[in-house]
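Lecture 7 notes: from sequence to structure.
We start with the chain below.
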Amino acid sequence: AWAKEVLGINADGLGYLLTSIGLGATVGTFGLAALGKSSKKGKILIFFGLLWGLSLATFAQTNEYLIALIFLFFIGLSSAAFMSLTMTLIQIKSATEFRGRTMSLAMMTFGLMPLSAVPFGSLAEQIGTANALSISGSLLFILTLLYFVINKKIRNIN
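Predicted structure tokens for the same chain:
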């Protein structure tokens, strides 16, 4: 409904929007793999978190189809790279004897994500979907930036 109302597109257009996310995710994942044993994993993680937040906040405010396609590509790219690198770092940095427990806690966060739909839905109802998405992206950007500034360890992860 949102794509039809805001962007004025039909089912085919929505398919292209979703394809843009998928292409971005593919590029992000392969790009991350190409970085291999980069010595700046923490900074790369922060970069993708910032890009994800900025892309989401900007996408939410557009009503142009082509611009939406571009920002959805970057949302797919940055979110896939961020989540892949996060899981990789959790496995690398966890002691072998705790790796299973650590990964189960990390996976539990994915299971709990739908709980955020309740307050987000309420917020979207009050201020509109685009504004709620923009706030989400802005919060992701700001909190990632704060984490980078406050936590010196993340900057030095290799």
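Points to note: The chain is about 85% helix and 0% strand. The chain has one domain: 2-155.
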